[in-house]
Amino acid sequence: MHIPDDYELMDSGNGQKLERFGPVILARPCAQAVWEPRHPELWDSANASFDRKEGLNWHGRERLPEDWVVTVRGVRMRLSTTDFGHLGIFPETMDQWSWIASQLRDAAKSRSTAPRFLNLFAYSGGATLAAAKAGAQCCHLDASKGMVEWARANAVLNGLQNSGIRFIVDDVGGFLRREVRRGRNYECVLLDPPSFGRGKRGELYKIEKNVQETLNLVGQVLSDTPLFVILTSHTPGFSPIVLQNLLEQALGQGRLTCGEMLLRGGPDVLDLPSGNWARWQAT
After folding, report:
1. What's the number of CA atoms in the CB half-sphere (13 Å) around residue 207?
2. Entry pTM
3. Is residue 270 within a helix (H) or strand (E), and if so which, with residue range?
4. Are 119 and 155 in contact (CB under 8 A)?
5. What is the CATH number of the domain that holds 117?
6. What is the DSSP pairing of strand 137-142 with strand 116-120?
7. What phi, psi does 243 have (nearest 5°)?
8. Are 60 and 39 members of one domain?
9. Is residue 84 included in any domain, yes or no?
10. Are residues 48 and 138 in the same domain?
């Protein structure tokens, strides 16, 4: 199997995952990896590791560059270690980037105007940039000003600073309600609600309580000629079927599919489940 671009899942097991991000190899926690590592000889190659055994702890962080750039699925991303163990990319979402870009390129062949793509809880912008590269008009929204600035910087890395992407720092619910009032709509929506989060003004978001309202608002901003809505989640208990059922209730008839988000490596590396997804497509 060809390892795409600058990301590689090297091994997993004993509650950890070993990943390569360009020149940097990291070991980080992964509760799903309850099996034994297949390649124990590789783990000493890690440049640094992160754990949550007694708080949040990096080991060897001082040996890492302050930031570095990788290319994944044709998108350039600036990575940097954060105190929570994140890097500015969730590689399990890369399959969604590729699917989105493929759908948008196909749509561009049959539509007179570029599809409008809305990315909610959009993090550092990987999906937004993949969509923009495929020709979509993009709106990127996150409640964290720092993450939106990170996404802007990634847009510059990809030569997309003048592509018309709308970068917005806001609470998802408030933004969607305003879009409904404005009559602004979108052909494509991606959302990855957090298990727990806070909006721009401290608004509390809990997926169990708020996701249905969010999806109902998404339905109201869909255009009369929609393409797709994708719902992803890392929340325990939000299985693929749960996500699919939520989309079906909120959006009605459509072509529904669902599955697990997976980290993948070479042919002798076990696939690693890392969240779930569901898609609604117009029929």
Report:
1. 18
2. 0.94
3. none
4. no
5. 3.40.50.150
6. parallel
7. -65, -40
8. yes
9. no
10. no
Domain hosting residue 122, numbered range: 91-281
Distance in angstroms (rounded) separating the CA atoms of residues 249 and 21: 38
Per residue in 131-174, pLDDT (tens digit) is 999 999 999 999 999 999 999 999 999 999 999 999 999 999 99
For the purposes of burial, counting CB atoms within 10 Å of the CB of 53, is it exposed (0-12), middle (13-18) or buried (19 or more)? exposed
CB 122 within 8 A of CB 89: no
The terminus-to-terminus CA distance of the chain in angstroms comes to 33
d(CA 146, CA 133): 23
If one counts every other C-beta atom within 10 angstroms of the C-beta of residue 158, the result is 18
- E strands, 83-227, are 116-120, 137-142, 166-169, 188-191, 196-198, 204-206
Looking at the predicted structure, is the pLDDT value of residue 3 above 90? no
SS3 146: helix
Cite the beta strand spans of the chain per DSSP E.
Answer: 7-13, 16-21, 24-29, 48-51, 57-59, 68-72, 75-79, 116-120, 137-142, 166-169, 188-191, 196-198, 204-206, 228-233, 255-263, 272-281
pLDDT at 1 over 70: no
Q: What is the DSSP letter of 227?
A: -
Outline where 80-144 has alpha helix (H). 94-110, 126-133
Q: Tokens representing 197?
A: 């989060």
pLDDT recorded at residue 4 = 53
State whether 138 and 54 are in the same domain: no
CB 6 within 8 A of CB 71: yes
